[in-house]
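> example.struct
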């Protein structure tokens, strides 16, 4: 019976890992799409176009904000992790779950912003 519990938690860990991997792949696709749509605008900005220069500064501000938000999220996840470790030491499977939660909370700000950028830039062109 213990092996069923162990295999069930292993399946849950694998599902968490797949979820994080799927989110990372989707984020990379969104980022590639955003970069592809931004390149012509940024190229015009390099040649002095005001719209392209605004887009370049908007991109820098968005990336800095996402980085700050992500840093806060990983700090929060780490604090929650250590707090739960102090109150209730985790098993190896619980450690994997806590790691997956921390990774997910760190990726979420970047994922949200890349989806928003792709949506905004596709509306502008279309």
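> example.seq
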């Amino acid at each position: 019976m213990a092996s069923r519990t162990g295999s069930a938690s292993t399946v849950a860990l694998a599902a968490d890992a797949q979820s994080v991997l799927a989110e990372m792949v989707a984020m990379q696709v969104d980022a590639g799409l955003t970069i592809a749509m931004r390149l012509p605008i940024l190229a015009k900005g390099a040649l002095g176009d005001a719209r392209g220069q605004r887009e370049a500064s908007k991109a820098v501000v968005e990336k800095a904000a996402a980085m700050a938000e992500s840093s806060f999220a990983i700090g929060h996840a780490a604090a929650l992790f250590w707090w739960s470790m102090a109150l209730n030491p985790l098993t190896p499977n619980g450690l994997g779950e806590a790691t997956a939660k921390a990774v997910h909370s760190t990726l979420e700000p970047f994922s949200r912003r890349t989806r928003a950028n792709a949506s905004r830039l596709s509306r502008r062109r279309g």
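> remarks
The chain has three helices and no strands.
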